[in-house]
Amino acid sequence: xxxxxxxxxxxxxxxxxxxxxxxxVADPTFQKLWTIGVLMGAMRWLELLAVGVWVFDLTGSPLLxxxxxxxxxxxMALFGTVTGVIADRIDRKLLLVLSLSLMCGTAAVLGLxxxxxxxxxxxxxxxxxxxxxxWSTDFPVRxxxxxxxxxxxxxxxxxxxxxxxxxxxxxxxxxxxxxxxASVGMVGVYVIASAxxxxxxxxxxLVVYRAAAREPRPFALFGEIRDGFAYLRRSRALLGHxxxxxIVNLFAFPYAAMVPVVGxxxxxxxxxxxxxxxxxxxxxAFVGAMLIAFMAAPERFRRIYLYGSALxxxxxxxxxxxxxxxxxxxxxxVGGFGIAGFAxxxxxxxxxxxxxxxxxxxxxxxxxxxxAGPLGVLHVGWLADWLGGSMALTVISLEGLVALALLVxxxxxxxxx
Length: 417
Fold this sequence. Notes:
Blueprint: H1 21-25, H2 28-59, H3 62-87, H4 92-116, H5 121-135, H6 138-150, H7 155-206, H8 221-233, H9 236-251, H10 255-265, H11 271-295, H12 301-321, H13 325-353, H14 359-370, H15 373-387, H16 389-410
Helix pairs in contact: 2-3, 2-5, 2-6, 2-7, 2-10, 3-5, 3-10, 3-14, 3-15, 4-5, 4-6, 4-7, 6-14, 7-11, 7-13, 9-12, 9-15, 9-16, 10-11, 11-13, 12-13, 12-16, 15-16
């Protein structure tokens, strides 16, 4: 493959001839990578909602619902750093194709098992883990390719638009998952997922990408991982950035695993209305991310990231306290704006401050921090078995707000820029 015109391959200058979010729409490489992100995100949320409802209907156990979500998130914690090192050494495009193929094959096998009437919880759990393994490559592979392809001048808008599309899938995926599960069961969910992942594989094959030339050096997995952590130790701001990521993934995002539980326990909602709870949050996040893409200046990235994180955790706390379904929808829509600030800036800050030669490694470390989520999911699942879904969310969100306040005191650089 040849590099895109306009700059050295993988140098971050490929997209420098035109600026702003609208110029990205005409960029063929961005179009394909953006579309792959949309398809992956939609299937992630579709499967998450359908699996959660299926497991809760079958077992009545909030802990098992949380366990399914944990299995999907666990590979990011286990393999994110390793994936980052590998992505710095071999063809990122090949890794992207292989990861999408794994997700496609997993959904197809589970769909066949559901059609045969043999689908079991252990199979769904294994499928969640394998799909999570494919998802764990998103930051060090797909988003790194995207960042290198669009150029530094368009990095903020590109990451914001990618985040906006991911949040749009939070509108479509959960409500589609609830509707599909209610109408055609797990067979339809997995068949559609396998077809969508197959489309993403085709797009990945068509992506034109060649990374910048790297200086030859011996491959030393643990040594290269140490190099990444050594760089982070010299940057308090980036360490604080990763700390925010850990806190949000430990104490805020696990709320999604409890939505099927809270939906049934508190609101007596059917699968479609449970899906709407997650979808309305995605709608708020989509609007917020698009505003950031068009309006946010680079010097405000860190403040957007911090304040968005705080708003999201606060809205999880508010959601945990209400018993009115309409009010819950409104709170989650506002929480979506917080997610937009967090998710849009999470990749942009790390990518823009990482030296190119260790960029995938640092993005892999970011994935590991995101992978802290399984501990939060187990925590909220255990609390929900003991206290109920809503009270469990009250506890974890309060823990998150306290942890975030302590981090800001310890790392004041988070408030600067």
